[in-house]
Amino acid sequence: MPCYSIEGVIPVVDPAAYVHPTAVLIGDVIVGPDCYVGPAACLRGDFGRIVLERGANVQDTCVVHGFPGHATVVGENGHIGHGAVLHSCTVERDALVGMNAVVMDEAVVGEQSIVAACAFVRAGMQIPPRTLVAGLPAKVVRDLTQEEMAWKRAGTETYHDLAKRSLKSLREVSPLAQIEENRPSLAAPFVEPLIAAKRA
């Protein structure tokens, strides 16, 4: 992975974490055990510290940055969806930030909360635990159901599993010219989109 020190401060990655080779880590970045950092994610700890606590995932093309002297923290089992931007904020334990959402300075995403895809969480917003927020700017929509919190947890567990699968078997290869006979299936655990789960 591209990993850079600045002013002698070197990123820290726990051996039980998986960071994709195309992700970029700069400076004061701490990636805890069982974390997953996806392709083309950028964790820029050249101003403030960035911390991913145990089991957090930061998916592909996410950007994590912050102001000098302000940490950006993703708590234990925090789940940051594709393309999200975090800046000098805190995402507490078991919370989810949806795809392409933005969470601004000094905002706090409460435990087990969900920030909807494409939401804009304004600076300083305090999101209560176990709530859904959505919109531009984001507003509290309602409390989450037990089913929604369980779905989020299952999704995060698939990323715990993906970190292990990636450490074990993800390798750079040349593509095949054609589909082989008896092409194998992936061993990923089954999780369906929340909309499909609600339909059932």
TrEMBL record:
Superkingdom of the source species: Bacteria
InterPro entries (alphabetical): Transf_Hexapept/Carb_Anhydrase, Trimer_LpxA-like_sf
Entry-linked CDD domains: LbH_paaY_like
Gene3D superfamilies referenced in this protein's UniProt entry, alphabetically: Hexapeptide repeat proteins (2.160.10.10)
PANTHER family cross-referenced by the UniProt entry: DYNACTIN SUBUNIT P25, GAMMA CARBONIC ANHYDRASE-LIKE 1, MITOCHONDRIAL-RELATED
Protein name: Phenylacetic acid degradation protein PaaY
Organism: Herbaspirillum aquaticum
